Amino acid sequence: MSTPMSVFDIAGRAMSAQIVRLNTVASNMANAGTVSSSKEGAYRALKPVFTEVSDAPGVSTVRVGQVVQSDTEPTKRHDPSNPLANKDGDVWDAGVDSASELVDMIETQRQYQNNVQVMQTAKTLTLDTLRIEK
Amino acid sequence: MGSDALFGIHGTALQIRSQRMSVLASNIANAGTPGYKARDVDFTKALDSATGDDGTTADAAVSGNMAYRVPVQSSLDGNTVELPVEQTQFAENAIAYKTTLQFLQGRVDTVMQALKGDGS
Description:
- The complex is a heterodimer.
- By secondary structure, chain A is of the alpha+beta class.
- In chain A, 43% of the residues lie in helices and 24% in strands.
- Chain A has helices at 7-30, 98-130; strands at residues 35-36, 46-56, 59-69, 75-78, 90-93.
- In chain A, strands 1-5-4 form a 3-stranded antiparallel sheet, with no helix packed on it. Chain A has a two-stranded antiparallel ribbon with strand order 2-3.
- The longest helix of chain A is centred in the C-terminal third of the chain and has 33 residues, at 98-130.
- The radius of gyration of chain A is 22 Å and the shape is elongated.
- The two termini of chain A are 33 Å apart.
- By secondary structure, chain B is mainly α.
- Chain B has a two-stranded antiparallel sheet with strand order 1-2.
- Chain B starts with 8 loop residues before the first helix and ends with a helix.
- The model of chain B has no long low-confidence stretch (mean pLDDT 90).
- Classes of the chains: A alpha+beta, B mainly alpha.
């Protein structure tokens, strides 16, 4: 058996996963104002799905298993002056819920901070242990 | 693993503290994973079984005394990690780790003093 994951592996990979989540939030916010001439072509929010990664009981980290499109429906809006409007004069606004994206962003930030704190504590304790003979 | 002649119970305690830190770090890492069940090590029981006479290693003692956390309030996605709980436990574990380290330091200092003789 290989050496079990250290706290640094656990927190480090969790931080990577949170960064992926932050990137999806950024993509969603960037595309929140986009319009499309068809419902199918409209942007839908991307959501990462976290999956547990474990190689020993009780010790596990996290990775982004997949990124899925959310089921927030694009909204139809009548806007004949829009160059993208279809023959009925309708456009579809991107299916992004800005409020929930901002909530997601704060949650991501908090969870990232938690992992940084874990890593910092582990680092301090490891260094203290190394210095024990002095 | 029995008690070590030099470090006594503290060497084993430090190993268990370190492994518990990994378990709690796993819980914090998986705070957003749907269906993840938070786990924790019963430190007292693990230390008892690791310092007993039946030759249990610290690794075996930790995995043998692991249990799922009972959430205060269950969440819709089946995740049982509650960050305030995990943070508190992690902080408590870190302080206990440091305390154990101080005990070890004391033992090392004593031996060093004995080796040097007059203490100068």
